[in-house]
Amino acid sequence: MPDSPPPEERDKVEAERKAKEDAEQAKLPYKWTQTIGDLDITAQFPGNLKGRDFVVEFTKDKIKVAIRGQEPLLEGTFPHLIRPSESTWTLDTLSSPPNTKELSIHLDKSNKMEWWPHVVTSAPAIDVTKITPENSKLSDLDGETRGMVEKMMYDQRQKEMGKPTSEEQGKMDMLKRFQEQHPEMDFSKAKIG
Question: Which of 68, 113, 120, 189 is the most buried (most CB within 10 A)?
Answer without folding.
Answer: 120
